[in-house]
Amino acid sequence: MAPHGEKSDAAEDAMVSGAEKRPVSSVLIVIAMQTEALPVVNKFNLTEVPDSGFPKGVPWVRYHGFYKDLEINLVWPGKDESLGVDCVGTAPASLVTYASIQVLQPDLIINAGTAGGFKGKGACVGDIYLASDVAYHDRRIPIPVFDLYGVGLRLAYTTPSLQKELELKVGKLSTGNSLDMSPQDEASIVANDATVKDMEGAAVAYVADLLKVPAIFVKAVTDIVDGEKPTTEEFMQNLVAVTAALEQAVTKVIDFINGKCLSEL
Ligand code: FMC
Prior knowledge:
The protein is an alpha/beta fold and 265 residues long. The protein has a single domain (9-262), classed as 3-Layer(aba) Sandwich (Rossmann fold), CATH 3.40.50.
């Protein structure tokens, strides 16, 4: 990953190229919602780690296990302590990604989750997208250079073989802290040229870039943002079916990664 689409610096190159020469051994899956996480947890027979290595008292949940030649950790930011709902959005995603990298030192991060899709850009409900790059659409700072900082563009780790073999759709992902879309958000999403819209991707990308861990983004479309149906209704209606599709996609991605070096992805 590289900020603002620039070439990565020498230190990052050295780090990634070292890791690129041996098969991936440790994968960290970051997922925002329990409904999205549990099918993956069950698929890989992951078990909850009681002593997660995270600070005492945080709601973050870590699941761990081995699958083929891979060590898999799946982290979920858990439920809000007072409201009891999933901690979706950028702040919990950043924190849990940061803490997980510190504790687990993964070779690769997979941010998997649901997203809204734009039919004008070819997205349909149930589609699985691999994000080519990730940016924010709700950090508007109209001052030169701060404007670019606000957009926070990061490139996903390039995985051309994975994309081709699994026939995944590729598109740009735009992240903001709202499920709905204000006119200002819409203008920024158009400027970001995004096909899919979520609430965590750019935050995971920021931390992954900060700590120089390659990251990919697997997003399953629950709702069509530029369609007729209200987003909340469509999201709730499709969530369970689409998370099943997400689990299947994540399984295929993991199967593909197994035994390969980063450079073979
Ligand atoms: N807009 C933004 N986020 C989402 C979305 C949409 N149309 N559909 N699905 C999502 C994802 C977000 O990343 C959250 O984790 C969750 O589902 C919705 O709260």
